[in-house]
Amino acid sequence: MINLLSEQPLLVSIMLAALGGGLIFAWLQSGKKAAAVSGLVCILLIPAAWVLAARLVTDRERIAEIIDSAAKSVAANDHEAAVAVIGDEKTRRMAMSELPNYVFKTAEVNQITSINVDENAIPVTAQVEMTVKADVSAKRGGFNNLRVLRKLELEFEQRGDDWVITAYQHSPVIGPDVSNGL
Fold this sequence. Notes:
Order of helices and strands: HHHHHHEEEE
CATH topology of the largest domain: Nuclear Transport Factor 2, Chain: A
Distance between the termini: 41 Å
Number of strands: 4
Strand order of the largest sheet: 1-2-3-4
Radius of gyration: 23 Å
Helix content: 40-55%
Shape: elongated
CATH class of the largest domain: Alpha Beta
Number of domains: 2
Largest sheet: 4 strands, antiparallel
Strand content: 25-35%
CATH architecture of the largest domain: Roll
Number of helices: 6
């Protein structure tokens, strides 16, 4: 329910407006004050739904913020900041061995396909699938300003109030991987 309130305020507003309108219509038909008051309360709750949505941050929204921050760090070629969100030492070393081989002109998240949070896992985990694009050059000169589209799969783990990446894998958006690690 919290996810609905914080991530879908338009849907909540439409439901409140329909319920409020229905209750006011019921008051017009029956003359019962309780229906009118309830309808007005529903309509007055619509702005509250928007305020609540702006203030609540769900796990999914927090993960999306982390991904956006990491993408900006990659685009700025700030490798230390980009890997700061990686909580697994082996995964961090793997990323630090890959990133310095390239110079990024841009790095953007095209689309986050899914963020699946497993609240029943201990600790809480999340699986993320997304597509990214980057304009990248090889530091050793193999290619310059190549537009690369990749599918990226991330595993997150919640540690306290923070989310960290514990594993990642990138592959072509479609077809076999012929990029030699890019």
